[in-house]
TrEMBL record:
Gene: Suclg2
Cofactor needs: Mg(2+)
InterPro entries per UniProt: ATP-grasp_succ-CoA_synth-type, ATP_grasp_subdomain_1, Succ-CoA_synthase_bsu_CS, SUCC_ACL_C, Succ_CoA_ligase-like_bsu, Succinyl-CoA_synth-like
Protein name: succinate--CoA ligase (GDP-forming)
Upper taxonomic lineage: Eukaryota, Metazoa, Chordata, Craniata, Vertebrata
GO terms of biological process kind: succinyl-CoA metabolic process; tricarboxylic acid cycle
Length: 328
């Protein structure tokens, strides 16, 4: 079967997700965003942190082990010196960063996040997601964070805790407190973690998320519960009431043909073959791609017109396909 690479319709950079969380009262590390080396230096000086973490902002994962075409290795760096932040930013901004998840030539870095580096004394995992099996949101947590949760589910399933939330009644205080306890938070940190969990649920509802995943959801040696990293998935159908969030969508890293297709409400995924697929309905489109592959061919794309198609969309779809140099 043809493997399609799933892509969220809404793409947010790390700093954008963290800003949304901070705006809703969730505790994240202090940070600034810079689009020049000079701005990065000023941001580092303003932070007045013991240690600073500098992160290249691209949508692909694996930044830490990536390589820039400037020669710099790594898209994530720790330093105590603001001047080093400036030097590193000079080698990041305006250069392409290549990781396992980027195209071969990498992706140009236009912004960097300059953040306070916090020590993590303990890491846990926490997420809220929509579960069709229970027709509502579910909390998922583990005292073992900072690693792939799927791996934990296989090796230590007893360390995965789930709790269904009644969509009409909302999250109860005792549910949040029990989850904090299951995650291993003790003493005052238990209440602090429960408060953060409730704020994350309120965020989940308010922004029409389908998933809010925090890994690690950790504690610092100073006794603070912090959301160190987060992934937020949104319900595309809620765009009409989440205009401010959807306006943040970063399409700059998409293939130009994908952006052009989106302008005409066409769903397009580029593949590496030479036979164009132009189909009405995602199920039929996937079946068509499979049939082509099973008969020795290779599909060049997945193009779904969807329902309620108009003549102008058909015209634009043909324009996109015939402009693709791969299509024979």
């Amino acid at each position: 079967a043809v493997q399609l690479t799933p892509r969220r319709w809404l793409n947010l950079q790390e700093y954008q997700s963290k800003k949304i969380m901070a705006d809703h009262g969730v505790t994240v590390q202090r940070f600034f965003v810079a689009d020049s080396a000079n701005d990065a230096l000023e941001a580092a000086q303003r932070l007045k942190a013991k240690e600073i973490v500098l992160k290249a902002q691209i949508l692909a994962g694996g930044r830490g082990k990536g390589v820039f075409n400037s020669g710099l290795k790594g898209g994530v760096h720790l330093t105590k010196d603001p001047k080093i932040v400036e030097q590193l930013a000079k080698q990041m901004i305006g250069y392409n960063l290549s990781t396992k998840q980027t195209p071969k030539d990498g992706v140009m870095v236009k912004k960097v996040m300059v953040a306070e580096a916090l020590n993590i004394s303990r890491e846990t995992y926490f997420a809220i997601l929509m579960d069709r099996a229970c027709n509502g949101p579910v909390m998922v947590g583990s005292p073992q964070g900072g690693v792939d949760i799927e791996e934990v589910a296989v090796t230590s399933p007893e360390l995965i805790f789930k709790e269904e939330i009644d969509i009409f009644e909302g999250m109860k205080d005792h549910q949040a407190f029990q989850m904090a306890k299951n995650l291993g938070f003790k003493g005052p940190l238990q209440q602090q973690a429960a408060d953060q969990i409730k704020k994350l649920y309120n965020l989940f509802l308010k922004i029409d998320a389908t998933q809010v995943e925090v890994n690690p959801f950790g504690e610092t040696p100073e006794g603070q519960v912090v959301c160190f990293d987060a992934k937020i998935n949104f319900d595309d159908n809620a765009e009409f009431r989440q205009k401010e969030i959807f306006a943040m969508d970063d399409k700059s890293e998409n293939e130009p043909i994908e952006n052009e297709a989106a302008k005409h409400d066409l769903k397009y995924i580029g593949l590496d073959g030479n036979i164009a697929c132009f189909v009405n309905g995602a199920g039929l489109a996937m079946a068509t791609c499979d049939i082509i592959s099973l008969n020795g061919g290779k599909p060049a794309n997945f193009l779904d017109l969807g329902g309620g198609v108009k003549e102008a969309q058909v015209y634009q779809a043909f324009k996109l396909l015939t402009a693709d140099p791969k299509v024979k």
